[in-house]
Specification:
The complex is a heterodimer of chains A (245) and B (380).
Chain A lengths: L13 E12 L2 E13 L4 E5 L6 H8 L7 E6 L2 E2 L5 H11 E4 L11 H10 L5 H14 L15 H13 L5 E5 L7 H16 L5 E4 L3 H4 L4 E6 L2 E4 L12
Parallel strand pairs in A: 3-8, 3-9, 6-7, 7-8
Antiparallel strand pairs in A: 1-2, 1-4, 4-5, 9-10
Chain B lengths: L3 H8 L3 H34 L4 E6 L7 E2 L2 H7 L3 E9 L13 E4 L1 H7 L3 E2 L2 H9 L3 E5 H7 L6 E5 L6 E12 L9 E4 H7 L7 E2 L1 E6 L5 H11 L7 E5 H11 L1 H31 L2 H10 L3 H32 L15 H28 L2 H6 L2
Parallel strand pairs in B: 4-9, 6-8
Antiparallel strand pairs in B: 1-11, 1-12, 2-10, 3-4, 3-11, 5-8, 6-9, 7-8
Classes of the chains: A alpha/beta (245), B alpha+beta (380).
The structure holds adenosine-5'-triphosphate and magnesium ion.
Adenosine-5'-triphosphate (ATP) binds next to β1, β2 and α1 of chain A.
């Protein structure tokens, strides 16, 4: 169940209340998020849309603990992250967040395997355990046969799948995807969206997706619009407002 | 070390750049090793200088002589155990390039003054019995392939004419640093042959004191004794004397040191700039590492480590080359007989290389550590 009116009960996985984010640009103050509320349950798949500059990336960064809000609280799985110090936030991120970016952001000098292994280096897993996890993650994204390829030896769609494997390998609490198909052609984009669908449906992942692509957004259980600093539910043809039925 | 991929991979990211930076360190540390060798060659005298010996020279300059009559007057000063004198000959053997020091010595006093020089007893006797006899250090004899019994002609520069000597003895040193590149012959021979110009004169005196603690006091007494005479003296401990000798080389040494300092400063700028570029072009990746959950300090150390690894490898190459060079011996053919790279210099060089690597990496690393993920990812 996804709500944007602050009425969610205590059981939500992600709970955002009164989120404000202001940026200072010179003397001008930009009020990007203005008292935003959001409740997302475990296993939900939410898409955010909105015009460029409406604050989608800002919201995702706040949810992922990459930035701190001007005001308001974010609670994930019972932990309030908005008051964590820098170091604690980093540790929290390693445990709970899987990021997928538009630009893939793989390390070019590491192989697919080594890129996917990165988050596991922060855990206490042994070498063989890490190997097992990495291989599983790469098989889930369909790249079991490309493990020792370098990013430059992969297509854009394959690179993004490596990035997804990296995001899921440590089994985070939720996945944050910022325009994951923005750089891909239709076919590759559809494949990536199929993959994300499967992660939700078969692996029970919770996914928050920012996209400009209505086709991609249509895959989500719930579509939200970011408008004037708050979220509003979009009314879609053939679907009831409010998301999953 | 589970992070080694991250470090190694970054070194191989730009192979040419890494090689060049590594090469800069290698060249600089090779130069450092060379400087250490040359400085060691100059200051070797300091190491072997006896603390109980004083050197008495003419106050005007060391090349001005002193009267031979001072010998007895010095011997009478309380606290002085023995006295010998020394004379610089400055001749040329075959070619000016074949430089080595020749001294006209006062046989018996000289021999007991320098117990560090060892001469087989029978050789010493046969030297003493030959008016044209001479003694050579073992390294010197090796250098020219001399054997006892050889006849050695030396062309005078201060004292005219060609002087022929019979090599009667070869001395060695008790310690490795003792100078065995000298050539000695009888002061009597010099005095007889140069009886007009060099009559009753000696180059300088060397004095041994009973108690090294009195050395400075006795030096003062000596200089007061001869004050207001036509031949005033200036007395120093052998160590201070050797040090002043090194100081004369000081200008060369200073020049070398300046060049060295400039090279290292340049190295710091080159390496620092390289690391700054390396960090700048990798900003997104570093930001991703942080997004994934690596701490600011980890990212900082990653950059520092990379810089230090390059410095350490390059430095090791340079120092190894310098050591290899030093093992091949003096390349100048006798100018730097003490051609040796001591382990302390190698250690100092290694520390210096790592320090420069650290200094070069620290600022880029600091900015990498402070990098905010959201800003870095926004940058395209
Ligand atoms: N560090 C910053 N300093 C100042 N202004 C910022 C900063 N970061 C973001 N902004 C501004 O905040 C607003 C929201 O930016 P954000 O990137 O969240 O938008 P977005 O919805 O993701 O846009 P797009 O669809 O183009 O990615 C923009 O007007 C942007 O210029
Ligand atoms: Mg954005």
């Amino acid at each position: 169940m996804v709500r944007v009116d602050g009425s969610g009960n205590g059981s939500s996985l992600v709970r955002v209340r009164g989120l404000d984010k202001k940026y200072q640009r010179g003397s001008e103050e930009i009020h990007v998020l203005q008292g935003l509320n959001l409740d997302v349950d475990r296993g939900d798949f939410v898409a955010f849309m909105g015009p460029s500059g409406s604050g989608k990336t800002t919201l995702l960064n706040l949810l992922g603990g990459l930035d701190l809000p001007t005001r308001g609280t974010i609670t994930v799985a019972g932990d309030e992250i908005t008051h964590l110090s820098g170091g604690k936030l980093t540790t929290w991120r390693a445990r709970h967040v899987g990021f997928i970016f538009q630009m893939y952001n793989l390390i070019p000098v590491l192989t697919a395997f080594q890129n996917v292994e990165l988050p596991l280096l922060l855990t206490r897993l042994s070498k063989s355990e890490r190997k097992q996890h990495v291989e599983t993650a790469l098989q889930v994204v369909g790249l079991g046969d490309r493990m020792h390829h370098y990013p430059r030896q992969l297509s854009g769609g394959q690179e993004q799948r490596v990035a997804i494997a990296r995001a899921i390998v440590a089994d985070p609490t939720f996945l944050l995807c910022d325009e994951p198909t923005g750089d891909l052609d239709r076919k590759s984009a559809d494949e990536i969206m199929d993959l994300i669908d499967r992660l939700v449906a078969e692996h029970g992942k919770t996914v928050l997706l920012v996209t400009h692509d209505p086709v991609a957004a249509a895959r989500a259980h719930t579509l939200l619009h970011l408008d004037k600093g708050v979220l509003v539910e979009a009314h879609r043809a053939g679907s009831t407002a409010g998301g999953r039925n | 070390m589970k992070y080694r991929h991250l470090i190694i991979a970054n070194l191989f990211r730009k192979k040419i750049r890494t090689t060049l930076t590594l090469g800069s360190f290698a060249v600089a540390l090779f130069l450092f090793g060379l400087l250490a060798i040359v400085r060691g060659a100059f200051s070797q005298g300091l190491e072997v200088a006896g603390s109980d010996r004083l050197v008495v020279v003419n106050k005007v300059s060391i090349i001005q002589p002193l009267p031979v009559a001072y010998q007895q007057r010095l011997e009478r000063i309380p606290g002085i155990k023995e006295v010998t004198h020394n004379n610089w000959f400055g001749g040329i053997y075959q070619d000016p390039k074949n430089f080595f020091a020749q001294f006209a010595i006062d046989d018996d006093t000289f021999h007991s003054m320098y117990p560090e020089f060892v001469i087989p007893g029978d050789q010493w006797q046969s030297y003493k019995q030959d008016r044209e006899g001479a003694v050579a250090g073992v390294k010197l004899a090796q250098r020219f392939g001399w054997k006892v019994g050889d006849r050695i002609p030396i062309k005078g520069t201060i004292f005219p004419g060609t002087w022929e000597f019979n090599l009667r003895a070869i001395y060695s040193g008790r310690r490795p640093a003792d100078d065995t590149n000298q050539f000695w012959f009888h002061y009597k021979y010099l005095e007889e042959r140069e009886n007009t110009y060099w009559h009753g004169l000696v180059g300088w005196y060397v004095v041994k004191v009973n108690n090294p603690d009195d050395a400075v006091k006795i030096a003062k007494t000596i200089d007061t004794t001869f004050a207001n005479s036509p031949w005033e003296t200036k007395t120093d401990t052998e160590k201070a004397f050797a040090a002043s000798f090194v100081k004369q080389m000081g200008n060369i040494s200073f020049l070398i040191m300046s060049i060295g300092a400039v090279v290292f400063f340049t190295l710091l700028l080159v390496a620092g700039n390289t690391m700054a570029i390396a960090v700048r072009e990798r900003i997104r990746e570093l930001a991703v590492l942080k997004a994934v959950g690596f701490s600011d300090n980890f990212v900082l150390l990653l950059v520092v480590f990379e810089s230090v690894v390059v410095a350490a490898i390059g430095g090791a190459v340079g120092l190894t080359l310098a050591k290899l060079l030093s093992l091949r011996g003096d390349p100048t053919g006798g100018l730097l007989p003490f051609f040796y790279l001591p382990p302390q210099a190698v250690a100092a060089g290694a520390v210096l290389a790592v320090a420069v690597g650290l200094a070069a990496g620290i600022w880029p690393a600091y900015s990498a550590g402070r990098l905010r993920v959201v800003d870095a990812l926004r940058r395209v």
